[in-house]
Amino acid sequence: MDQALSLWFLLGWIGGDSCNLIGSFLADQLPLQTYTAVYYVLADVLMLSLYFYYKFKKRPSPWSAPINSLLLFILGVACTTPLLRSAGSVAAPREVFQGRTLLSVEPGNKPFTKKEIIGFVIGSVSSALYLFSRLPQIRTNFLRKSTQGISYSLFALVMLGNTLYGLSVLLKNPEEGQSEGSYVLHHLPWLVGSLGVLLLDTIISVQFFMYRHATPSSERQPLLPG
After folding, report:
1. pLDDT tens digits for 117-128?
2. Which one, out of 48, 97, 102, 223, has a CA that is 20 to 30 A from the CA of 59?
């Protein structure tokens, strides 16, 4: 696992998911977005824990303790953010999902609050991390000329999940008095983060097809010198 997966891919992924969680909370995104962001961070912490476990299993490192502390901190943030969101929305009316309507009064633009602007910026950072996180993994696959050690189900389900995630945001009806353009603008970083990585995940899918019968270069080296 520590050879097949790029560490920068995992770090970019957990960084993007962490920013996604914080940005969704601050920018008052849909509850579905916050809950899935919590799940993503928990899954990332588990994946990183497995990575460093196999990495340092036979090679103890002084970095293991700080890394474990950082993972525990991220885990704590992921668990407490939904609680803060629930506590802050007790007095607010519960928002019900509504599909798009064909006939409606001409709406206007919804202004950004200061809290939403901070969340929008953090969400934009999340989108950038999502996009750049794929590049190290594409490079690792190219250098190894193999995708062995990586589960294609991971990327296939991520592609399916991001597609449905983006569609769920697009198909929701804007708030009363809000134009569709303003609605898309408020959710733009999350749409770019979910739908924008589909192209890069498609490249990784092509690599799975190209290298499906290949053997990693490290395994092709002879055990004894000729």
Report:
1. 888 898 899 899
2. 223
